[in-house]
Amino acid sequence: MTSISINNLTVEFSAKTLLDNISYIINRKDKIALVGKNGAGKSTMLKIIAGLQKPTSGTVATPSGTTIGYLPQQMTTSDTATVIEEVRKAFSHVDEMRRHLDNLNEQLATRTDYESAEYSALIEDVANLTDRLAIEQTENFEAEMEKTLMGLGFLRSDFNRPTSEFSGGWRMRIELAKILLTRPDVLLLDEPTNHLDIESIQWLENFLITKADAVVLVSHDRAFIDNVTNRTIEISLGKIYDYSVNYSRYVALRAERLEQQRRAYLNQQKQIQETEDFIERFRYKATKSVQVQSRIKQLEKIERIEIDEVDTSHLNLRFPPAPRSGDYPLILENVGKAYGDHQVFDHATFTVKRGEKVAFVGKNGEGKSTLVKCIMGEIPFTGDLKVGHNVKIGYFAQNQAQLLDGELTVFDTIDRVAVGDIRTKIRDILGAFMFGGEASDKKVKVLSGGEKTRLAMIKLLLEPVNLLILDEPTNHLDMKTKDILKQAIKDFNGTVIVVSHDREFLDGLVEKVYEFGGGEVRECLGGIYEFLEKKKLASLAELERNTVRPVAPQTDKAKTKVTPAAEPQSEESPRRRSYAEQKEYEKMLRKLRKSVEEAENEVSRIEQAIAEAEALMNTENPPTDIYERHGKLNKQLENAISVWELAGIELEEYQNRK
To answer: pTM score, two decimals?
Structure first.
């Protein structure tokens, strides 16, 4: 692929300019994060590049033969095929190439103008197409489809199920698999992680980094775009700002740019004010008329500096103090849930203490939301589940949006639940959650699904509760709003359970992770990245070894007994490795040894820090926070030792492979 060129692009809606004379180039191997606040024009930009929408003016120059794969946020999918049949359509171009080659060969057989330029061109076309087809046919399509589907969370037992048995989120995964398998020159992905779990997101990250060519990505998942992208294009007030760095570095550079912009704006405002004062003071003095006219013309020529957007990051939401509950808001002993013959999970035994903030993670269908429904008393279960004394639960799920009063305005909806000082900040809060200006006066019934979800989130977080249960709370929030929500939850003095696949949102928010998988619920002390380190989910090989899981039933047909799939190449009989396999083996061995070494160094570092803290504790005037620091360090040491042990076990297992 040569570059795609966006030239002088302008888009107007209802006399409002969304994109204003924008130009940039998408190069091969560019991994671009397209960022900007909601409504800035990110999705519109993707649709225009994909050729699905026309700009008001300007052009998109796409070289002949360039293939583009586009995944929108929402799409309609067919329900007439099985999963594997639907995904196999990704290779329909190979059948088309075969038909085209047959047609060309028929022309060669019937033509006799052997000396003509047309005949020579026909021979060249046949040769080129034959070469392309040979390259395509060297790939194992079935293996590629299996690897991609399993990477996105499907099981082999899912492959022959009708697509109609799957939810909209799973059908989006099928469409994503089809797009990835076509290996387009340019991938345009609009919020691809909204329907993925942590494991699938990490698989997609690896795919985009190692196998994709050019990528233009819209996502509110900060960790995802930070890991994938090497260039960031911000859309703000119709203009673009192009940074040749990943998202984290862009944030720092953008802060510098905004500060420069703010200073330039203030200087210009001062200049304008001084000019206007001069005009007003000498407007009626004949001796100053020339100077006054000169200043008026000067004022008219000034190109006014605009501040990109109102920064709400300083907004500090403080929700009502949580009424005190018992010491243990939640106690589970041998809790289980089955649908017919399918056991979603069993023997779940754990205790959530007052003030703890924990995460439920795992692949979709493993029982995270099911356990939440058990806690809420919405479905029956086995075992013993106790909700503690004086526990008041605030529950956020996707259907919360449907419970809002459609006849109230956005402002009134929040005004009815806000208490105390927070009532004076309702407009600020609504603005932070993208309901600024006239949007706060809209009636709830005219809001989109995403807007209703955000409103339900605000409503919940203003109610006086002491146990918050949040099921995927960040799906419809932009990054700045997620930061505000995250800080508010961190400051919340009650207990929190978060079901989420957003690693960056969970990082620094939760101190304990419960992993759902294989019919079990396992506790992992520490934050989300400590959990991921222990699981080694960043390793593609580790991910593929962990793909077997029970299928959540949706219809009677879906009740499938899951058994480990047979892998013909993984038989126990020893065989000599090929050169490529030996090279890959040694590469993984080096990586695992490095992990053990790094984990051991981390244990040593923390032990040294503990020794230093204990030395301070034995002084006459120890620092006031030393005991708290000592406790945290011991907790970190426990987690670090677990990581070290797991890394050692994984290295030993890998070395013992035949």
So the answer is: 0.61
